[in-house]
Amino acid sequence: MKLTTLCYIEKDDKYLMIHRIKKKHDVNKDKWIGIGGKFERGESPEDCILRETKEETGLTLTSYRLRGVLTFMYNDDDAEMEYIFLYTADGFTGELADCNEGTLEWVPKTEIDSLNLWEGDRIFHRLLDEEAPFFSLKLRYQDDLLKEAALDGKPLELLDLLDENGEPSGQVRERTLVHLNGDWHRTSHVWVVRRRGDGGHDLLLQKRSRGKDSFGGCYDISSAGHIPAGQDYLESALRELKEELGIAAEPEDLRLVGVHDGRYEGEFHGRIFKNHEKSHVFAYEKPVEIEKLKLQKEEVESVKWMRIEDVLAAVKAHDPGYCLFEDEIEMLSEVLA
What we know:
The chain is of the alpha+beta class. It has two domains: about 1-155, Nucleoside Triphosphate Pyrophosphohydrolase (Alpha-Beta Complex); about 180-335, Alpha-Beta Complex (Nucleoside Triphosphate Pyrophosphohydrolase). The protein is built from six helices and 19 strands. The chain has helices at about 45-55, 120-130, 175-180, 235-245, 310-315, 325-335, and strands at about 1-10, 15-20, 30-35, 35-40, 60-75, 80-95, 105-110, 135-140, 145-150, 155, 160, 170-175, 185-195, 200-210, 220, 225, 255-270, 270-285, 300-305. α5 packs antiparallel against α6 (about 325-335). The longest helix is centred in the first third of the chain and has 13 residues, at about 45-55. The relative contact order is 0.11. The model has no long low-confidence stretch (mean pLDDT about 95).
């Protein structure tokens, strides 16, 4: 286990970063990171970052602050585990010197996301940009793949990014960043369906909790959710149905209706929201009594039955109380007919 520091020096809305290309045996090889290094005996975090900055850049920091602590775990190797004191700095003196760790470059903040970064670095860069209060971020990797992330002790949701064929690409990303960038990802949709006496169908709609990060208070699919990295559509659909509505379904209870590609762009709570999802759409047609459902309060405010024709009409009329895809409801209607 190591104690280290990491600092992002700021000037003209740019960060000074190192492209780690000079060392052969370097866990950070070919990646772009900030300035920093390991503690020496007797050093405080401030002693360490002042010394490392001087050694790596030739600069002397005059204004800096501690922003958070990172727990970095790599391949379950205790020797590669680090507790990293994360700083930003906005004051310095001196002239930039050559660095034996890699190539130094002032990178515009708007271009950082396009660089070859550790995936978890994208999480703390967002926190830095948002001026988040002091934070603790845990990041666990298997080789280059981020396997676990937790912010202030709370797990963060990691999603598989999809390739041009709609299959997992081998890269994962934290959910908030997925919706900031509009990355293509997977979701499962389950429609709870009730057949009427006249041969038509009703849909069970859930009203999203008002505290949701998007579409709070809107009527939505009976049960839906992002698919955690490494899981599959059916597994996720069954889990979400149980968690959100208390329905314990078996795999054979869900009928695959089809695959839907959905897109949306908007803004919620002052934050950009871009959604591009590939969804497996399922129908659950066993009897359901609303009174016996166990709603997940954090996700679902209430539920109601509604004629599929009326749902489609509301969506076509762009009723703001509904956050549904028109073509998905049409697909469902055709299959149920």
